[in-house]
Amino acid sequence: MKENQELVNEIEELQVIKKAMNNMKKTYLNIPDTKFKQNVKNIINWLDKIYAEIFSDNIKLKKFRMYGDYYLPTITDLIDRYNVIKAKKLTSEDAINIINKIEETIEKLEEHFKRVYNGFFENEILDLDAEIKVLLHEIK
Predict the structure, then answer these.
(1) Is the distance from CB of 110 to CB of 42 less than 8 angstroms?
(2) What is the Cα–Cα distance from 64 to 42, expressed in whole angstroms?
(3) CB 84 within 8 A of CB 95
(4) Looking at residues 81-101, what average pLDDT do you find?
């Protein structure tokens, strides 16, 4: 019974994350063609890769759990607000500053999600490195 509840919880978590990702993808469609749009697309690509990993590995899902509830919706909200400011063609100093901050944030997030994805494989890479070292030591 406990295992069934854990499975239900994992499915619910995956659904929350997938919904947040889909909302981000919808918001992405409204971004004018710019470097910003490409950065958001790169984030979405990393998230798709991350989702494939967490879908098949509940340990990775546990590491990524907080993203669906807070981070992904917040990122989507930033992108949406960016779109509104750009669409209204606001040129005040505050508007320009916030646009710049959002663009910088998205660039940093792109790198962050790349690190998250690569981090899923760190133990495997370290294990392979150790195996190679042992193998090379044995054949000397």
Answers:
(1) yes
(2) 18
(3) no
(4) 95
**Taking the domains of the chain in order of start, what are their residue ranges?**
2-138
Q: Are 87 and 74 in contact (CB under 8 A)?
A: no
The residue to which tokens 């760190």 are assigned: 122
Q: Which of 5-14, 35-44, 82-91 has the lowest mean pLDDT?
A: 5-14
Alpha-helical regions (H) of the chain = 2-28, 35-56, 58-66, 72-87, 93-119, 122-138
Residues 30-82 have pLDDT tens digits of 998 899 999 999 999 999 999 998 888 877 887 787 888 889 999 999 999 99
Dist CA 118 CA 105 (whole Å)? 20
pTM score, whole prediction: 0.83
Burial 68-83 (b: 16+ CB within 10 A, else e): beebbbebbebbbebb
Structural tokens at position 139: 């054949």
SS3 for 62?
helix
Q: Are the C-beta atoms of 51 and 21 separated by less than 8 Å?
A: yes
- State the average pLDDT for the chain: 89
